[in-house]
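Quick start: what a row looks like.
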Amino acid sequence: MKKSRLSTRVLASLFAPVLLLGVQQTALAESSEWSDSFDPIEIVNDYQRDGLSETDRQLNSFAKTALLNQATDIQLALAKGDYANVTQHIHPKKGVQFSMYAYVQPKKDKRFSRQQFATYLKKSRVRFTWGEMDGSGHLLVIPLPTYLDEWVQAVDFNNAEVTINQSQGSGNSLNNIESVYPYANAKFAIVDFYNKGSKEYDGMDWRAMRLVFEEYQGKSYLVAVVNDEWTI
């Protein structure tokens, strides 16, 4: 291996499959961005064909931007080793789970509460078993800070391609993230950071880091960090 806050309503627009239907259309006419060059009836009808008003789309866009900002803050904090900043984003009830590869195993993958995460960051001699390494089958047994530095290795995603609820990259390992964290039922949102790899290795050194968020009391919190890469 190589070494903004939103209201509850706006957040719900991102985590729900039907987004904020029924928002009053009068807000469109009052918008400073509205001009005579547009036909409001035609535009509203276009959105209605998709089941959304323009206001719905704008709110959804704001929610996505906020989520991307939050995910990027976490990625950069991980890349810099600023793990205290990551702690505040962890779900206060469910904690955060780490999966070494695309195949998520909820009963086996290591999970930390927010307090445990903060505590074990300071205990570099306490080692955890994270899972089996692809190829060798050897167990990865290392402290939490080492896992974040050497396995999550978020610095690889400083210039990554980023998508929401769409996994990039595929290898031989099964990707079951959508079944474990089903965003389609409005419960989760997944931000995927993808490094496509190098020409030298024909892209086989690609890597992905997927940050999974769940809404809780009107805010989005980190519940999982899933890594992915080419496997044998």
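That is the whole record. The first strand starts at residue 96 and ends at 99. The helical segments are 8-15, 26-29, 40-49, 54-80, 83-87, 114-120, 144-152, 177-180.
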